[in-house]
Design goal:
Elements: E1 5-6, H1 16-25, H2 44-61, E2 67-72, H3 75-87, E3 93-98, H4 101-111, E4 116-122, E5 146-149, E6 151-152, E7 157-158, E8 170-173, E9 190-194, E10 205-210, H5 227-232, H6 242-257, H7 260-280, E11 286-287, E12 299-304, H8 310-319, E13 322-323, E14 334-337, H9 344-361
Parallel strand pairs: 1-13, 3-4, 3-5, 5-8, 8-9
Antiparallel strand pairs: 2-10, 6-7, 9-10, 11-12, 12-14
Helix pairs in contact: 1-6, 2-6, 3-4, 7-9
The chain binds 4'-deoxy-4'-aminopyridoxal-5'-phosphate.
């Protein structure tokens, strides 16, 4: 098999080591004679897998004991609805930071519950090249919570620190930079994200929620969408996405072997720096649309000055086993997603190719 480097935004590259473990254990998990896929979610084998996955995630992220960890389904998109259902708590306004595509979709879903998103700051006027400074945010003191998207997967804009909200619960869509850097969980009311970027296979959605926010879901909330019920049932009110939880658990153990979030962050900084430097020193052949302080370490959008070369770029990259570089249709150009599991070697292969391509076509 030819080794490739996969720059997909998600589902995305997973650690090779983990995939090999999965392969080894696929037919017979730890002498059980069963594949994890075939196990009852209430049997002792899977209960152990799920408990360990939660324990390891708590250890990796330093999740305080007054937070519940939920292993759910439906993707981050379902959380766009579940968060208001559970956290509006009789209020009708939610503070939002508008950083682009995903924050806009979260706002759209909020409106279905008769609530209003109050935009505290928006990058729209600047074409989402930046994130307005927190000092200038126009907050609503009656907001049920403040929602932000810590990393805009399409636009490539990332918060470099956690906003401060005082008594207003802070809610974060962390889908595309989950576990890419240390965060202080105690600053959040709720964190959510789909697993299919830094964590594991699609089909698993992780929610980390402070306990005092549970139990106030709006009337009519479906059972499966009530965080309190999910928490009380240890995310097993119904059949959870067992295989995805198992793989995520292996990824959490891999992260610990990598030295934890601080060490992983260092590698992510190094990879992103190399790629942005290649773009910035290309004498205008490549261009990143995001201002430097806001650039994402996970998703790097870049354009070729001559868009008529886009197709050749993708084709030649593919011939060098550099895959999934086509930008999101909303933005065009290219996008390289360089999640935790992308080795530095992969970024080096990409930047080497980019320099060659610029030389031959510049
Ligand atoms: N939020 C962000 C920041 C995302 O990147 C994505 C998916 N790319 C979503 C939400 C939607 O996630 P899902 O497909 O898991 O519903």
């Amino acid at each position: 098999m030819t080794p490739v480097f996969n720059f997909s935004a998600g589902p995305a590259v997973l650690p090779r080591e983990v995939l090999l473990e999965v392969q080894n254990e696929l037919l017979d998990w730890h002498g059980s004679g069963m594949s994890v896929m075939e196990m009852s979610h209430r049997g002792k084998e899977f209960m152990q897998i799920a408990a360990e996955a939660e324990e390891d995630l708590r250890a990796v992220m330093g999740i305080p004991s007054n937070y519940k960890v939920l292993f759910l389904q439906g993707g981050a998109t379902t959380q766009f609805a579940m968060v208001p259902m559970n956290l509006l708590r009789g209020r009708s306004v939610v503070d939002f930071v508008d950083t682009g595509h995903w924050s806009k979709l979260a706002m759209k879903e909020l409106r279905k519950f008769g609530a209003t998103p109050h935009i505290v700051a928006s990058g729209e006027a600047n074409g989402y090249r930046d994130i307005p400074a927190e000092e200038g945010w126009q907050r609503n003191p009656d907001a049920a919570y403040l929602h932000y998207t810590s990393n805009e997967t399409i636009g490539g804009v990332e918060f470099q620190s956690t906003p401060k909200t005082g008594d207003v619960p802070l809610v974060c869509d962390m889908s595309s930079n989950f576990l890419s850097r240390p965060v202080d969980v105690s600053q959040f009311g709720l964190i959510y994200g789909g697993a299919q970027k830094n964590i594991g296979p699609a089909g698993l959605t992780i929610v980390i929620v402070r306990e005092d926010l549970l139990g106030q879901a709006i009337a009519g909330t479906p059972t499966m969408f009530d965080y309190r019920i999910q928490a009380e049932g240890d995310s097993m009110y119904n059949t959870p996405p067992t295989f995805a939880i198992y793989v995520a658990g292996l990824v959490f153990k891999w992260m610990q072997r990598q030295g934890g979030l601080k060490a992983i962050e260092q590698r992510n900084i190094e990879k992103a720096a190399l790629l942005y430097e290649t773009i910035d020193t290309s004498a205008g052949f490549y261009r990143c649309p995001v201002d430097k302080p806001y650039r994402s370490r996970m998703n790097v959008p870049f354009m070729l000055a001559d868009a008529s070369l886009d197709e050749a770029f993708i084709k030649e990259a593919k011939a060098r086993n550099l895959l999934q570089l086509k930008g999101h249709r909303a933005l065009g150009g290219m996008r390289a997603s360089i999640y935790n599991a992308m080795p530095l070697e992969g970024v080096r292969a990409l930047t080497g190719f980019m320099q060659d391509f610029a030389r031959h076509n510049g």
